[in-house]
């Protein structure tokens, strides 16, 4: 990792920080590659259960770095998409901690996350149409499934910004904090998730993320195929033993 992306891990939680405050955390090729690298690490490690992604300096992300783009940089990582996250989020839960602006590709990165914690003055939007462009990093694909379709269409076609509380009322933002409190709020939420069985958490996300594509006739078989190994795992036995013995579980992620 370079100084443009900071990566820390503690107590089962990985924190990824886009660290280009002078550029409003706009994403260039280096940032995209490093975010993808961090997500690969999150997915590969048994000691990590959940990730948090945020931006330094009071802004989440203003989208693609247009100056870098004009020089020929494309902030897309093969297998991960825009920003190293929008095309293929991690297998493990990812929480967006949003301060300031999450715009264009920044909002599309938020939409790739499973949960969102935002400061009360945060602003979101896909304003590409205002510049004659299309939100091609997943915004048009995901937003209509996260909030009512008519409102998603309005936001996409007007390009107007939307506040955190409005998106919380619509169900997209999980928690609204005071100004400057988004990261702490996201870490608190991540801690609640990380306290649980890591294998169970990962498979639960997988089932929820995949089930939209399952037909009624196949959904139970598909779920059982994924969930079955969890019930005979070390963690399942450990969870039951810890409950009976009134102690904290010692998870192994297997």
Q: What's the helical proportion of residues?
A: 40-55%
Overall average pLDDT: 94
**Count of individual beta strands:** 11
Task: Outline the low-pLDDT stretches.
Answer: none
Strands of the biggest beta sheet: in what spatial order? 1-2-3-6-8-11
Distance between the termini: 29 Å
Quote the beta fraction.
15-25%
The whole-angstrom Rg is 19 Å
By DSSP (H or I, 4+ residues per run), the number of helices equals: 10
Shape: globular
From the helix content, strand content and strand pairing, which structural class follows? alpha/beta
Listing every helix as H and every strand as E from the N terminus to the C terminus, the arrangement reads EEHEHEEEEHEEHHEHEHHHH
Largest sheet: 6 strands, mixed
Oligomer: single chain
What secondary-structure arrangement, pairings included, does this model have?
Blueprint: E1 5-10, E2 13-18, H1 29-44, E3 50-55, H2 66-70, E4 76-77, E5 81-82, E6 94-98, E7 101-103, H3 105-111, E8 115-119, E9 123-125, H4 139-146, H5 149-158, E10 162-163, H6 164-169, E11 175-177, H7 182-194, H8 198-210, H9 219-231, H10 234-245
Parallel strand pairs: 2-3, 3-6, 6-8, 7-9, 8-11
Antiparallel strand pairs: 1-2, 4-5, 9-10
């Amino acid at each position: 990792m370079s100084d443009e992306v900071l990566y820390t891990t503690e107590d089962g939680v990985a924190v990824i920080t886009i660290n280009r405050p002078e550029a409003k955390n706009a994403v260039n090729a280096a940032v995209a590659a490093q975010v993808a690298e961090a997500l690969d690490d999150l997915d590969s490690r048994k000691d990590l259960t959940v990730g948090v992604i945020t931006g330094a300096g009071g802004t989440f992300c203003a989208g693609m770095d247009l100056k870098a783009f004009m020089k020929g940089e494309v902030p897309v990582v093969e297998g991960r998409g825009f920003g190293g996250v929008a095309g293929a989020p991690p297998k493990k839960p990812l929480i967006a901690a949003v301060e300031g602006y999450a715009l264009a590709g920044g909002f599309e990165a938020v939409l790739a996350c499973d949960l969102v914690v935002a400061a009360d003055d945060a602003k979101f939007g896909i304003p590409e149409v205002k510049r004659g462009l299309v939100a091609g990093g997943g915004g048009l694909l995901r937003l209509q499934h996260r909030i009512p379709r008519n409102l998603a269409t309005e936001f996409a076609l007007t390009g107007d910004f939307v506040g955190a509380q409005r998106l919380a009322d619509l169900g997209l933002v999980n928690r609204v904090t005071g100004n400057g409190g988004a990261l702490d709020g996201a870490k608190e939420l991540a801690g609640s998730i990380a306290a649980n069985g890591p294998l169970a958490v990962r498979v639960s996300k997988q089932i929820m993320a995949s089930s939209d594509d399952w037909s009624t006739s196949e959904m139970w078989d598909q779920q059982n195929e994924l969930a079955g190994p969890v019930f005979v795992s070390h963690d399942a036995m450990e969870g039951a033993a810890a409950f009976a013995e009134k102690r904290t579980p010692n998870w192994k992620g297997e």
